[in-house]
Amino acid sequence: MKVSVTTIPLAELEVDLLLIPVAAEQRARLLADLKAPLGSTLERAEADFTGEAGESLVLYPEAARARRVALLGMGPAAALDAEALRRAAAEGAAVAARCKADTVAFRMPETPLDAEVASQALVEGFMLASYRFLRYKTEEAQTAYGGAQRLVFLAEQGDRASRAGAETGRIIAEAVMTARDLVNLSPHEKTPTLLARAIEKAAKKHGYEADVWDKALIEEEKMGGLLAVNRGSTEPPTFTVMTWKPENAVNERPVILVGKGVVFDTGGLSLKPTKGSMDSMKCDMAGAAAVIGTFEALAKLELPLYVIGLIPATDNRPGENAYVPGDVLHMHSGKTVEVLNTDAEGRLILADALSFARTYMPELVIDIATLTGAAVVAMGTEAAPVLTNDLDGAAERLAAIEAAGRRSGDRVHRLPMYREYGDLLKSDVADIKNIGGREAGTITAAKFLEHFVSYPWLHVDIAGPAFLDTPKPYRPRGGTGFGVRLLVDFLRDYANPKKRR
After folding, report:
1. Is 245 a known active-site residue?
2. Which of 72, 107, 118, 241 has the smallest set of CB atoms within 10 Å of its CB?
């Protein structure tokens, strides 16, 4: 989708659809003001339009070149934030789809947000709501309307800021779509090897580095968790190291992102039921997809930050040599783990990656993973739990990523990491076991991972919002790309040296 900013007068803007976001308290004054450029139809619409969030009204202006005008409700003016704009823009995308509009324009709304933030939010909401995954549709289905091709912002003032925000929003939305596409791929098209090749291709296209390890290198590095999970598969595992290190990076030691890359999870010998469980497990690499999308955005935005991405990738299948409950694994760190459930596999491959991350002496490590069903029980699909270890700056790390979640719309909320939760992982035969029981499953999974870190660390469990059965305003059914906007926003903020001190 092409995104641009113009200062053409409202009445002269020739588009298929002109979108006008309006807050509830603004509607009478704003519609009266629009009478001159667009005609009395706008003013008369006040009786049929309240401005409530999620509302839209399509009109046909008398005195403008725009073929249609749609009023979009933003809700109460006092509650206007970037998320309200994203949701209004998502409704605008729905109107555009119904009208089959190819060229769409936004009149910049009156909000307390600056023009850059507002235009970024509107682009994100519109583009993400316009997303369609059509790879496997028939030729007939693919000839259906494919969404708007051009999005224009009418900026009466602050056009430089609007341009910057619109471009940032476009880049981030495209990165989210990359993550969505990866999650939505059929499992046979994203084996560990094919996923690694996709990363290499993306690295070449966007300008970062990618180094793919084969099974021999993984064995040499003694990644016992990754190798164990892979034992039931006919496909070898991969371990991909991604590097974004611009010359103007503000940090000497890297920030590391670790993404869980279980490309399909049957549960192994602890087999999942199909309906409502295994049938959506192509999404179990959504953490890896989020890291891949984030790297695309970092490179396009030219973020001055040294960042490394680690993607351990395998599937988890009940093959003839599959690992079994009762196995004791020797991990990359040297610790031993008693396996009591082969469906608690994600933490095993993450543990090896987190242990390997120590070799970089990182400033900070963030892992992101569809790790526990308990996270869905705790927070549903609206937010992801975030947890951290008790090292210097823990409270600041949690506050920073929660703030990034509020700004980006990929919301996260902290859970505790009390020492007592770790007692649930004690094993009679090994250093720790890989499950802690029914209680506090999200927390005990994080406590498991904590055994393999020795640096400032954040863990984000995206099992709830990464894949939806029921669509939300700008999050489709299937892969949502959750985590890309969160990580990009967090890292953009982190790259500010004053805020890092």
Report:
1. no
2. 241
CATH code for the domain defined by 178-500 = 3.40.630.10
- pLDDT tens, per residue, the chain with 501 residues: 899 999 888 889 999 999 999 999 999 999 999 988 988 888 888 889 999 999 999 999 888 899 999 999 999 999 999 999 999 999 999 999 999 999 999 999 999 999 999 999 999 999 999 999 989 988 756 555 567 899 999 876 658 899 999 999 999 999 999 999 999 999 999 999 999 999 999 999 999 999 999 999 999 999 999 999 999 999 999 999 999 999 999 999 999 999 999 999 999 999 999 998 999 999 999 999 999 999 999 999 999 999 999 999 999 999 999 999 999 999 999 999 999 999 999 999 999 999 999 999 999 999 999 999 999 999 999 999 999 999 999 999 999 999 999 999 999 999 999 999 999 999 999 999 999 988 999 999 999 999 999 999 999 999 999 999 999 999 999 999 999 999 999 999 999 877 655
Structure tokens at 61: 């202006």
Identified catalytic residue from 86, 87, 347, 411: 347
Judge if 2-155 and 178-500 fold alike in CATH terms: no
| Token pair in block for residue 20 | 């006008």
Direct distance between the N- and C-terminal alpha carbons of the chain, in angstroms, rounded to an integer? 39
Q: In the chain, where are the structural domains located?
A: 2-155, 178-500
Q: Any idea how long the chain is? A: 501
| DSSP3 helix / strand / coil % (the chain, rounded to 5) | 45, 20, 40
Total-model pTM: 0.96
Amino acid at 270: S
- Asked if CATH classification 3.40.220.10 holds for the domain at 2-155, the reply, yes or no, is yes
Of 35, 67, 222, 272, which one is the catalytic site residue? 272
